[in-house]
Amino acid sequence: MGAVLPVLKTKRFLYDVMTTRLNKLDAYAARNNDAYEDSATAILGVRQIGKTVLLKQLYNVAPDISEYRDCTGMPSDFDFDGYLRKLLDSGVKRLFLDEVCKIQRDSLADLIRFIKDACAFMSVTFTGSTNHNWKPQPDLLAELESSKNDNFIYNIQCISAEEFLLNLSKYAGDAIDMTNYFD
Q1: pTM of the predicted structure, to 2 decimals
Q2: Contact 73, 102 (CB under 8 A)
Q3: CA distance between the termini of the chain
Q4: CA atoms within 13 A on the CB side of 72
């Protein structure tokens, strides 16, 4: 919490949708005694599509109230309850969990419970990779979709020509290096 994360300048179209959503969730909580409207957001897509970049950009909007955590290599005995207490004690209002698809299967029930519990106190946005051979933690998505909470699942697509050209025109003054437009 606090430090800005290094990230590309170019923004996916979903960035504007998500910043609006996060701002609305924060405004709702401010009017309702810091009670969040039970909301989780999943950002899914194939590998190397820009999910992590998007998550870091969203973190950077309000780093003083945000927490970014890469779930790669998270141990199976991770203390989700202790982590939630730490987040609440430090005033986190926006939690960004990257690569939840890499959390070990035996921790899945704890992760589901953690996300549901955390959503009462903060917005939770998480990413997971998908492809035609592997589906994202189906138990997690089914559990979140079936709950009566206000949850959203976005499947981020390959960057479109329109999105690419819009970003190119925004940053035309910079030295154009094509590697900066994709992650």
Answers
A1: 0.76
A2: yes
A3: 23
A4: 5
